[in-house]
TrEMBL record:
<keyword id="KW-0704">Schiff base</keyword>
<dbReference type="GO" id="GO:0005829">
    <property type="term" value="C:cytosol"/>
</dbReference>
<dbReference type="GO" id="GO:0019262">
    <property type="term" value="P:N-acetylneuraminate catabolic process"/>
</dbReference>
<feature type="active site" description="Proton donor/acceptor">
    <location>
        <position position="136"/>
    </location>
</feature>
<protein>
    <submittedName>
        <fullName>Putative 2-keto-3-deoxy-galactonate aldolase YagE</fullName>
        <ecNumber>4.1.2.-</ecNumber>
    </submittedName>
</protein>
<comment type="similarity">
    <text>Belongs to the DapA family.</text>
</comment>
<dbReference type="InterPro" id="IPR002220">
    <property type="entry name" value="DapA-like"/>
</dbReference>
<dbReference type="InterPro" id="IPR020625">
    <property type="entry name" value="Schiff_base-form_aldolases_AS"/>
</dbReference>
<feature type="binding site">
    <location>
        <position position="48"/>
    </location>
    <ligand>
        <name>pyruvate</name>
    </ligand>
</feature>
<dbReference type="Pfam" id="PF00701">
    <property type="entry name" value="DHDPS"/>
</dbReference>
<feature type="active site" description="Schiff-base intermediate with substrate">
    <location>
        <position position="164"/>
    </location>
</feature>
<dbReference type="GO" id="GO:0008747">
    <property type="term" value="F:N-acetylneuraminate lyase activity"/>
</dbReference>
<dbReference type="InterPro" id="IPR013785">
    <property type="entry name" value="Aldolase_TIM"/>
</dbReference>
<dbReference type="InterPro" id="IPR020624">
    <property type="entry name" value="Schiff_base-form_aldolases_CS"/>
</dbReference>
<keyword id="KW-0456">Lyase</keyword>
Length: 340
């Protein structure tokens, strides 16, 4: 049996040339850097990787480049969602051939489907895939995968081995773990919501596919290590820092342009994404870049911008929310005798 999926899988951004094509040399350099910084795995063709903005041939090329450059050093969880189930199964076959560990497949998007249709879609894939499959629940962009559907698929399809949930809904994650783990103890649960990584891990998640790990892999890996070793206070402070960085990158620009700007500050030529930007948006990105540079400089990952940085404002709102969630989870773990 293959090892369960666990740890931090980085959803890779794709560097682009000035002509809007895949910058293979920079992508290879980025992969090496992420592995050197300690991420547990790589996740190409996810939402952060803008998979819908590439052709099927480009998506396969991205995975092939990353698989070649990784050379087995870390596992790869490749996004394999295509426009229909037939093409998705073909993608599964291709990624199996290039040697990735597993694929992640989002529920059907554009058409909002019923739970019965979502089940039928994944059942068809689970019965015909040569490679392990991770369900991908992201209800803001695709048909939701509810708990009964996850439970049924886990019990009927051996090749469905995990779920990645990007809803950020902690109770939903707990309900899935409670429903699935008794019958499939090897089934993996990954969170795609960086702002709740610590409480998700404390609740039983095995890891995450976290966009911040593409910018500050050192911090995201440290948060995982501290949380899984129950060093709660140290982990809590890192979660505060990641929430602030995550919010700025996510909400201050069109997704994932904030993340692309931040990776530029780590020394990579990311180029422009394929979504055109207005002149106002480009100006906003320049302002955002300065703010991100200040945030990265506090951890020693960048120099301060010319003119320096403002005194850090009060982030008590985020901190209070994280504290409340973590305290609730820790109290429950103590009640069960799982932590001292």
């Amino acid at each position: 049996m293959a090892e369960r999926l666990k740890g931090i899988f980085t959803p890779n951004l794709v560097p682009m040339t000035q002509h809007g094509e895949i910058n293979e040399a920079e992508l290879r350099r980025y992969v090496d850097w992420l592995i050197e910084k300690g991420v547990h795995g790589l996740y190409p063709n996810g939402s952060t990787g803008e998979f819908t903005r590439f052709t099927p041939e480009e998506r396969r090329r991205i995975v092939k480049i990353i698989a070649d450059q990784t050379a087995g050093r870390v596992p790869i969880l490749a996004g394999a969602a295509e426009a229909n189930v037939k093409e998705t199964i073909r993608a599964c076959e291709y990624y199996h051939e290039v040697g990735v560990r597993a694929v992640a497949i989002v529920a059907p998007f554009y058409y909002k489907l019923s739970p019965a249709s979502v089940y039928a879609y994944f059942k068809e894939i689970g019965d015909n895939t040569p490679i392990d499959v991770t369900l991908y629940n992201i209800p803001m962009f695709a048909s939701p995968i509810d708990v009964p559907t996850v439970q049924r698929l886990s019990e009927e399809c051996e090749k469905i081995v995990a779920i990645k949930d990007s809803s950020g809904d902690l109770p939903h994650m707990i309900r899935m773990i409670q429903a699935v783990r008794p019958n499939r103890p090897e089934f993996s649960f990954l969170t795609g919501w960086d702002a709740a990584l610590m409480p998700m891990l404390l609740s039983g998640c095995d890891g995450g596919t976290n966009a911040t790990s593409g910018v500050v892999p050192e911090l995201t890996r440290a948060l995982y290590d501290l949380t899984t070793s129950h060093q709660i206070e140290k982990a809590r402070q890192l979660q505060y820092d990641l929430v602030k960085l995550f919010d700025v990158m996510l909400y201050s620009a069109e997704f994932p342009e904030g993340f692309r700007s931040a990776v530029e500050l780590r020394g990579f030529k990311m180029g422009c994404g394929r979504q055109p930007l207005s002149s106002e948006q480009k100006t906003d990105l320049q302002t955002l870049s300065k703010e991100l540079q200040c945030m990265l400089s506090t951890h020693g990952y960048s120099d301060e911008p010319i003119g320096g940085c403002p005194i850090d404002g009060n982030s008590a709102g985020n901190a209070d929310e994280v504290t409340r969630i973590v305290s609730t989870v820790v109290a429950e773990l103590k009640r069960r005798g799982m932590v001292d």
